[in-house]
Amino acid sequence: MIKYLKKFLAFILHICGYFKNVLTFKNLQLCFGAFQNRKFYTIINSKKIRKIIKKSDTIVIYGTGSSINKIKKNEWKKLRKFNSISLGHFAEHAYKKKINIDIVHIKEIGAWGDIVNSSQLENIKEVVNYIEGCQKLKNFNKTIFLLQSGIPGKCSNYMIDNLLFKFKTNLSFYKNSQVLNNANKFIGYKNFLNGRCGSLSMAITFVIKLGWKNIILAGVDLVDNRYFYLKNNQTPQWNNKRKIKVNDPHSMKKRTIEYINDFSKWSKSRDIKLHVLNKKSILADILPIYKFK
User: Fold this and answer.
1) For FRET with 208, which of 54, 130, 261, 263 sits at 20 to 30 Å CA-CA?
2) CB–CB of 222/65 below 8 Å?
3) What are phi and psi of 231, to 5 degrees?
4) CA-wise closest residue to 170 among 191, 141, 197
5) E strand segments, the chain
6) In the chain, where are the structural domains located?
7) What is the pLDDT of residues 101-122, one digit of tens each?
């Protein structure tokens, strides 16, 4: 009885938080503006994405962990043959690794969620730098940006409302809801993505929806708070705002381990193979290490 009461109270608190932080006049304006500006871009139905990108039966999900810098040149050469989807700031810095990204998954960009109420200037600067970095991708014109739609997609709506992407950029959309995205644990409900452990579980849900069954996690370390695009003793500004240090446990560690444990059990009977590239990742005890052929 107590267990169900806690769940009910958590649901009520979530609804209250939704009305307080999401359903604001400002966010309604952003959503409306973004919808109006879609006409300037090439909108792609997510179901058609695999038909217009390079063909591969394997997809790499790129995170931003420091292990990205330990990938060897001959390994990059092999990884480039696979399809790719990026998380967080990876796409902004992918050109440094001479790798193109087929799908850029955007939920929030770094500090957007954490410092939105303390410094709009920092938010704007970070998002603008992100878009500029993505535009340096070798085949940028073929890259598809997967954006959150609806009023909750504050960061995505800001990008489109302010026309930060070049005209005709390829955009596709998904929905995220704490209520509906977990209706089916790993496949999601319609075009809702599973947000159980943030953008990683969303990306996994998305690639499964599109039919990939061989998935490699690269740069998904979660050991500490080091990022491949920063110096070894640095962590991003949003961690500094939250007083999280470089060597502190990653905030998504527990939730990700729980999710991947459940996913591994679920995927066995569905012939879905999930591998991790970094043998020192916290997921290496759960998932097989990918071996290059």
Assistant:
1) 130
2) yes
3) -65, 160
4) 141
5) 42-43, 58-62, 83-86, 103-106, 144-148, 170-174, 214-218, 273-276
6) 2-285
7) 999 999 877 655 554 555 677 7
